[in-house]
From TrEMBL:
It comes from the Bacteria. SMART domains: AAA. SUPFAM superfamilies: P-loop containing nucleoside triphosphate hydrolases. InterPro entries: AAA+_ATPase, ABC_transporter-like_ATP-bd, ABC_transporter-like_CS, P-loop_NTPase. Residues 8-245 form the ABC transporter domain. Keywords: ATP-binding, Cell membrane, Membrane, Nucleotide-binding, Transport. Coiled coil: none annotated. GO terms for molecular function: ATP binding. This is ABC transporter ATP-binding protein.
């Protein structure tokens, strides 16, 4: 893979469920190091698109390449290698309730069966530390944690295999403003330190503007705009104007 190869490249993608077309001729090319905010109305196909990038859903037509590998024709080995190169933070945190914090983070490493137990434990503690969770919480159960802490543990788990690509689904949903701001800071510093490429679905304007290097707007069944937040905010289109209304307002007021 050359330096110029996009981390994610989507070409002429179509998605159809029964008679309803969700994506039509959708193109998107994401370069290494970007933090891409994926926005669009409810039902515009953001989650479906991310699932297709992860190989969990198959598009009706078109191509999805991740690190230069075509997802739809990848064999089991290629898919396993790709899965080790990306991490996913699901909206609900999705921790295993019967496992401790430490075991939740250690699980992806144990599944690889390549590392000794002790090393896995130390590595999991390190990931937790990176996500702002001290060792005093390692043996707690998920039910003992606050919403913000669950997100951090889930993030530590997403980082367990040292991914180059991180997917975040509504990372700040359900967090109070202070926890949300702290989580945004955490993502920003991890992005800087680990040189991650990040794809984030979000409805939260504040974290979108604070984090995104590029915004991809999903509307009219395709990526209507893919540009810096400053450029996207200038576009005259009903969804975009409505979405950024409060940001424009704040700019005028402030
Ligand atoms: N497996 C499926 N079978 C049939 N329809 C589906 C399936 N998955 C998604 N859809 C439909 O496709 C459309 C896009 O759904 P998707 O969840 O990707 O949208 P979204 O942009 O993530 O929405 P939201 O912001 O509300 O989460 C919706 O109308 C949904 O009902």
């Amino acid at each position: 893979m050359s330096i110029a190869t996009p981390v994610i490249e989507i070409r002429k993608l179509w998605t159809q469920f029964g008679d309803s077309v969700i994506h039509r001729d959708l193109d998107l090319s994401i370069a290494a190091g970007e933090i891409v905010g994926l926005v669009g109305g409810s039902g515009s196909g953001k989650t479906t698109l991310v699932r297709q990038i992860l190989g969990l859903n198959r598009p009706t037509r078109g191509q999805v390449l991740v690190f230069g590998t075509d997802i739809s024709s990848a064999n089991v080995d290629q898919m396993a290698r790709l899965q080790n190169r990306w991490g996913m933070l699901f909206q609900q945190g999705a921790l295993f309730s019967a496992l401790t914090v430490l075991d939740n983070v250690a699980l992806p490493m144990r599944e690889l069966r390549a590392l000794p137990r002790r090393l896995i434990r130390d590595a999991a503690l390190l990931k937790l530390q990176m996500a702002g969770i001290g060792p005093e919480h390692a043996l707690k159960m998920p039910s003992e944690l606050s919403g913000g802490m669950i997100k951090r543990v889930a993030l530590a788990r997403a980082l367990a295999l040292e991914p180059e690509l991180l997917f975040l689904d509504e990372p700040t949903a359900g967090l109070d403003p202070a926890s949300s701001a702290a989580f945004v800071d955490l993502i920003r510093s991890l992005h800087r330190d680990l040189r991650l490429t990040v794809v984030m679905i979000t409805h939260d304007l504040e974290s979108l503007l604070a984090l995104s290097t590029k915004i991809a707007v999903l509307a009219d069944k395709h990526v209507l705009a893919y540009d810096t937040p400053q450029q996207v905010m200038k576009i005259k289109q009903p969804f975009i104007e409505n979405f950024f209304l409060s940001a424009h307002h704040e700019q005028q007021v402030g």
